[in-house]
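Researcher: Structure for this, please.
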Amino acid sequence: MAVLSRRGRSALVAGLGGMRLAEVVWSARNLRRAGGGSQAAPRSFPLMVSINVALFGLCIVPRRRRPPLVLELAALTGLLAAVGLRLWVIACLGPAWNVKAVVPKRMEVVTRGPYGWIRHPNYLAVILEFAALPLAVGAYAEAVVLSVANAAVLVPRIRAEEELLDRVPGYREAFAGVPRLLPDLDRWVARIRSSDEIRVAAHQSRSDPGQGEPISG
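Model: Predicted structure, token format:
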């Protein structure tokens, strides 16, 4: 039993590949409007393009074996999370988002959305995609090889990008203590509790409007 047929798996890969091409077009548009900037680890970009081509090229090849249902469901969930996270990132960064890791000259420090939890949510989406897409189509060895290749490209790219971002006024202060790729669960729980306390206080204030008013007499 499987969620996707062989044609369905090929359609999934083709659809995600089409999204990637649309992202490249959107990125080029943003870069044209940005008016220049500094690119992090420019030599890594051709390598990133190559492994992305390899990801979709290897995964679109039909395979007879089907992944176990549990593994397929987990992989599809990971893909859904990756796509949702990337779209969230694009919406939050707006015209500053691009695939070349170019830091615009006039950059606004963004701390909303996923950037309130981690510094590089876009790269987390990429990592999820490189692991989940091959697993979803039964390409187990490719999942390992492509993930290792992706990590080899991302590590120096992230370091170089952070060096550029640290020069942006306010960035270092805004992201002090914010982890790179995985949310800090303690920080997450603390923020949720803080939000709950604010909602409770607001509710109490609305239900008892006279609370805290000075007593005259």
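Researcher: Any notable elements?
Model: Strands lie at 37-39, 102-104. The chain has one domain: 6-206.
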